[in-house]
Write a structure and sequence with these properties.
The protein has 326 residues and is an all-alpha fold. Helix content is 74%, strand content 1%. It has a two-stranded antiparallel sheet with strand order 1-2.
Length: 326
């Protein structure tokens, strides 16, 4: 589906990839190894795809949009490098993470190197308004990570806090993609704001789907290859299905699971108990319901725009985010 989504911007996407790789050519041998390793697992690159498609909705995609897309992907990579250190995660996209191979100091410094490149590439646009938006986005990512770190040490997470975290850590990244693409193509302010909201909803769907994968345990149908089992809960991240189960169960039923969270006693046996509790209490069904709600909101926004191939592809992005397997 990704190739179909990118069809309207195929040439522009290749230019983005070239720009991205040229931006990251360090002379330091250790950094060169890290960059080469990371370039081998960039994922689906859905975020720069959304940015370029948003730009294409309002005219030809210029170099400004391509530079912003590269800068955005570099920022995203930097945040993952730092997140893996904070969360003590040792696998990323079915491969060992940078901190697993080169340890924390190299991972952090590599993340810092990527962050400096964000500004360097963004500055090539000559657009202070877009550089300002990138700064706001970086602050949002750090804010979300700090909130998540604080919440992971508590035993009473709420749905409101959960959505605040995923909005800051994921949704605002997608909102920036849609907004910046429209800004680069000189869209009208109303169109820019509407597309930013579309991106926010798309990001929420993307994260909700990602969180649902954590509830596929070993041996179950649909197990995700290369994804660490119950990784979120082991890191103290309580996601929507479990939050829903805890909030909608009586105190007697939920008490054992709150005690596990308070003691951080996340053995394989306890994790299975908690995930079965979440599923049996309707948590996964509730997640699917919320995902559909946001999908309908996003579709309604896109319906306001004139027909175009880029618009069709953004609709496909919604389908991909909601139905992907990895």
């Amino acid at each position: 589906m990704i190739d179909l989504i990118r069809r309207p911007i195929h040439k522009e996407f290749l230019l983005y990839q070239e720009t991205y790789k040229k931006a990251l050519e360090p002379e330091n041998p250790i950094l060169s190894e890290v960059v080469q390793y990371l370039n081998g697992s960039l994922g689906k690159e859905i975020r720069p795809t959304v940015l370029l498609l948003s730009s294409a909705m309002f005219g030809p995609v210029e170099q400004t949009s391509i530079n912003i897309a590269a800068s955005l992907q570099i920022l995203h990579t930097a945040s993952l490098l730092h997140d893996d250190v904070i969360d003590e995660t040792y696998q990323r996209r079915s491969k060992n993470s940078i901190n697993a191979i080169w340890k924390n100091k190299v991972a952090i410094l590599s993340g810092d190197y990527y962050l400096t490149k964000v500004i360097e590439i963004a500055a090539l646009t000559g657009r202070l308004d877009i550089i300002t938006e990138i700064g706001k986005l970086g602050a949002s990512l750090a804010d979300g990570e700090l909130v998540q770190l604080h919440v992971s040490q508590q035993q009473n997470p709420t749905e409101a806090i959960y959505f605040d975290i995923i909005n800051k850590k994921t949704a605002q990244l997608f909102a920036f993609c849609a907004k910046a693409g429209a800004m680069a193509s000189s869209a009208k302010p109303e169109a820019i704001n509407r597309l930013a909201l579309f991106g926010e909803y798309l990001g929420i769907i993307f994260q909700l789907k990602d969180d649902s994968f954590d509830y596929i345990l070993p041996g179950q149908s649909g197990e995700i290859p290369g994804k660490p089992v119950a990784n979120d809960l082991k890191e103290g991240k309580v996601t929507l299905p479990l939050i829903y189960a805890l909030e909608h169960s009586d105190e007697k039923k939920s008490r054992p699971y709150r005690e596990i969270m308070a003691k951080r006693h996340f053995t394989k046996y306890n994790v299975r108990r908690m995930y079965r509790f979440a599923i049996e209490s309707g948590g996964l069904d509730y997640l699917s319901k919320k995902m559909e709600e946001y999908k309908q909101k996003a579709e309604k926004i896109l319906a306001e725009f004139p027909p175009s191939d880029a618009k069709d592809s953004l609709n496909l992005c919604l389908e991909y985010a909601a139905n992907r397997c990895v």
